[in-house]
Specification:
This protein is an alpha/beta fold. It is built from nine helices and 13 strands. 29% of the residues lie in helices and 23% in strands.
Length: 293
C-alpha cells in the first residue's frame, strides 16, 4: 500500500534514519519546474526510503513514504555536509536531531547554565555534546561507568552513577542548588522523576525518552513542580527545516557526531544486536553499514 503508482518498480528499505547517495533524479519544485540531473548525498529522519529507483519518491511529511500519485519534493531529505561520511551522518537522524531540539528549542538552553542529562545512550550522549557545545556545564547520569566515561569525552564536566548515589541529591550538590535544565533521555519512571527532582527553582524538565509499558504513567511529583514553578515539556524529533542549523555547527567543527560511533555492523549482526538493546550491551552508537547477506 506504500505506492499508488504501480509503475515504480523498486525495493523499499524500511528504515528509521538513513543516509546514502541517490541516483540521478528529477525532484519537481513546481508543476513545470525541474532540477537538473545530479547525484545527491543525503540524510533523512524518521522516514522510510526508496532505493534503486529510476525516480525518487521522497515524503514531504514525516513518518511515511507514500500514499501519493507522483513524486514529491524532498521535505525530509537533506544534503550532507562534506565533513560527514555516510556512517557518521546515519548517527544524526533520530538521536542527534531529537537531542538538538530537546536541548536548544524545547529546553531553551542558555550559555553557562547547568544541564543534567539522565541516560547516556545515543540520545543522551548527543544531548551532552550539544549542551556542552552551547556553553553549558553538563552533569551526565547513567548506571554504566562505560557510558559515563563516554559522556566525559562528549563534554560532561561531572557524572553521577545512578546505581551508587541518590541521583537528584547528587546533581543538586554538584550544581550548587540544582540544574537549570534537565533531560530524561532514556524514558523511565526513575529517570523522569530524578530529572524533575534535580532541578533548581524555575528549572525546566524536557521529556525526550519515550514512556511506554509500565512507565507510561509516571507519578509526577507535582508538589515540587508547583512550589518551585518548574516547567515540564515534551520533545519529539525535529522538523527538517531545523537540520541546517545542526549541519552548520558540524561544518564549523562545534559538533562532532562521529565521536558517538562505537561500532559498525552488518545487517545480520544488526538484527541480533537489536534483540539485545534492552540490556544495553555497549555504549555509544552502532551503525549498520554492510547490507550483504
Amino acid at each position: 500500500h506504500q505506492f499508488h503508482d504501480r509503475q515504480c518498480l523498486c525495493r523499499l528499505v524500511q528504515c528509521h534514519a538513513d543516509t546514502g547517495q541517490l541516483p540521478p533524479v528529477i525532484i519537481p519544485v513546481g508543476e513545470q519546474a525541474d532540477h537538473p540531473l545530479q547525484q545527491y548525498r543525503t540524510v533523512t529522519e524518521l522516514v522510510q526510503f526508496v532505493m534503486h529507483c529510476q525516480q525518487v519518491f521522497v515524503p514531504v511529511g514525516r513518518w511515511r513514504v507514500g500514499e501519493f500519485d507522483g513524486p514529491l519534493h524532498g521535505g525530509d531529505c537533506l544534503s550532507i555536509v562534506p565533513e560527514l561520511g555516510f556512517v557518521e551522518a546515519a548517527s544524526l537522524g533520530c538521536r542527534f536531531m531529537t537531542s538538538f531540539r530537546g536541548v536548544v528549542d524545547q529546553g531553551r538552553l542558555r550559555c553557562g547554565e547547568w544541564v543534567a542529562v539522565h541516560g547516556c545512550g545515543g540520545v543522551g550522549l548527543s544531548a551532552v555534546m550539544i549542551a556542552a557545545a552551547c556553553g553549558a556545564r553538563v552533569v551526565a547520569v547513567d548506571i554504566s561507568d562505560a557510558a559515563l566515561g563516554l559522556a566525559r569525552q562528549m563534554g560532561a564536566v561531572a557524572t553521577v552513577n545512578g546505581a551508587e548515589a541518590e541521583v537528584a541529591a547528587a546533581v543538586r550538590e554538584v550544581t550548587g542548588g540544582g540544574a537549570h535544565l534537565s533531560l530524561d533521555a532514556l524514558g523511565s519512571t526513575t529517570t523522569c522523576v530524578n530529572s524533575i527532582g534535580c532541578l533548581a527553582k524555575r528549572g525546566r524538565h524536557v521529556q525526550v525518552g519515550l514512556m511506554a509499558g509500565p512507565d507510561a504513567l509516571p507519578p509526577i511529583p507535582m508538589g515540587p513542580v508547583i512550589a518551585n514553578e518548574l516547567e515540564i515539556v515534551g520533545s519529539h524529533g525535529m522538523q527538517a527545516h531545523r537540520y541546517p542549523a545542526v549541519l552548520a555547527l558540524i561544518e564549523a567543527g562545534a559538533l562532532e557526531p562521529q565521536k558517538l560511533i562505537h561500532r559498525t555492523v552488518t545487517l545480520s549482526e544488526g538484527a541480533a544486536f537489536l534483540q539485545r538493546m534492552g540490556n544495553f550491551p555497549s555504549p555509544g552508537v552502532t551503525v549498520i553499514n554492510d547490507f550483504r547477506h
